[in-house]
From TrEMBL:
Domain Aminotransferase class V: 11-328
UniProt keyword Oxidoreductase present: yes
Essential cofactor(s): pyridoxal 5'-phosphate
Protein name: Soluble hydrogenase 42 kDa subunit
SUPFAM superfamilies: PLP-dependent transferases (SSF53383)
Entry GO MF terms: alanine-glyoxylate transaminase activity; L-serine-pyruvate transaminase activity; oxidoreductase activity
InterPro entries, A to Z: Aminotrans_V_dom (IPR000192), Aminotrans_V_PyrdxlP_BS (IPR020578), PyrdxlP-dep_Trfase (IPR015424), PyrdxlP-dep_Trfase_major (IPR015421), PyrdxlP-dep_Trfase_small (IPR015422), SP_NH2Trfase/AEP_transaminase (IPR024169)
Organism for this UniProt entry: Hyella patelloides LEGE 07179
EC assignment: 1.12.-.-
Enzyme class: oxidoreductase
Length: 381
């Protein structure tokens, strides 16, 4: 059947009808007073979502673009940085740092395992000459469904005294409680196609006063990605360059929907969906790739061996029109991932689990009818 496609991947995520309709409106001039009012409302909404008094900057980029901007605006060529690497995206940030000529120290963990917070403490406490300028952390490692211990690592960064925290919150912002001001995080980057419930195309960066001080001495050349331009424009409810006007319409509507749900409601829903998904997977006799104590509230990774992850994804797509994410790099074909962030409800998860049950049965995996659905529903009561 046409137009029945269902996204259960960690991005892009489903988009509410209200947001789609808002984006269908005719664009207006991005320098007009009417659009300035929209920007002002969006800026207030972004501060609410980020739990901060600082400016949250909107760039016409993906999450990767937001992370790159977060790096080149606050450190200089040759600076020493620590980068946590326990998945595809931690590795990507290390590669970005290396491309820009930073003295990059990788703190690694096996994919599917959380970063060891003590390794960060050791490196930071041993840096008596204060050579480490930034610590870059992927909070929710999308490739494996692991949530890293940002709070503990950030405490060690603050104890260091001078290093900045640069956080990839692309799949955790809007899915997990990150009180940016209370945690005293310096730079937090995210992307529109995740918890924001709008299509790809916007990246967001929240910047602390301490990070702005580092910006003043940063020596990387930049123009379009110069965050100082965005801050100056933000304060005037404007943008330094042409924004995606219709995406901004959608963002305005999505933020209004999120505010009606409340932060507490959003975080509770994501936690409930995570627990329901994981309970169902275990009831179906499949192996969870990440442990309960480090489970992402955005995506659950599953190791279905001896079944083929790609066979499962193929049937879910062709027969039920449900898109699941596959494994990346050396995990391709070995795991699949179920996204449950953004515009996702209890009904969506129950539907996905029911179809997964049927798929497993078709592949010869013995499972009692409704086993997964019952396990998920029990969590949702």
């Amino acid at each position: 059947m046409e137009d029945k496609h269902m996204l259960m991947i960690p991005g892009p995520t489903p988009v509410p009808e209200k947001v789609l309709l808002a984006m269908a409106k005719h664009p207006i001039g991005h320098r007009s007073s009417d659009f300035s009012k929209i920007i002002a409302e969006i800026n207030d909404g972004l501060k609410w979502l980020h739990q901060t008094k600082n400016e949250v900057l909107s760039l016409n980029v993906s999450g990767t673009g937001a992370m790159e901007a977060s790096i080149i605006n606050f450190v200089s060529p040759g600076d020493r940085v620590l980068v946590g690497v326990n998945g595809k995206f931690g590795d990507r940030w290390a590669q970005i740092c290396e491309v820009f000529g930073l003295n990059t120290t990788r703190i690694t963990a096996e994919w599917g395992q959380p970063l060891d917070t003590e390794e960060f403490r050791t490196h930071l406490e041993g840096d008596t000459n204060k050579e480490i300028k930034a610590v870059i952390i992927t909070h929710s490692e999308t490739s494996t469904g692991v949530l890293n211990d940002l709070e503990t690592i950030n405490k060690y960064i603050k104890d260091h005294g001078t290093a900045l925290s640069i956080v990839d919150a692309v799949t955790s912002l809007g899915a997990y409680n990150i009180p940016i001001d209370d945690l005293d995080l310096d730079v937090v980057a995210s992307g529109s196609q995740k918890g924001y419930m709008i299509p790809p195309g916007l990246g967001f960066i929240c910047v602390s006063d301490r990070a702005w001080q580092a910006y003043e001495t940063c020596k990387f050349p930049r123009f379009y990605m110069d965050l100082g331009k965005y801050k100056k424009a933000n304060l005037k409810a404007s943008t330094p360059f042409t924004p995606p006007v219709n995406l901004m319409y959608g963002l305005q509507t999505a933020l209004q929907m999120m505010q009606r749900e409340s932060l507490e409601g959003i975080f509770a829903r994501h936690l409930r969906l995570t627990k329901a998904t994981r309970a169902a997977v275990q009831a179906l006799g499949l192996k969870l790739f990440a442990a309960d104590d480090c489970a992402s509230t955005a995506v659950t990774a599953i190791e279905p061996s001896p079944l083929s992850a790609e066979d499962i994804r193929k049937i879910m797509s062709s027969k039920y029109n449900i898109a699941l994410a596959g494994g990346q790099d050396h995990l391709k074909g070995k795991i699949f991932r179920i996204g449950h962030l953004g515009f996702v409800s209890d009904r969506d998860v129950l539907t996905g689990i029911a179809c997964l049950e049927s798929t497993l049965t078709e592949l010869g995996h013995k499972v009692q009818p409704q086993t997964g659905v019952k396990a998920a529903a029990a969590v949702m009561v």
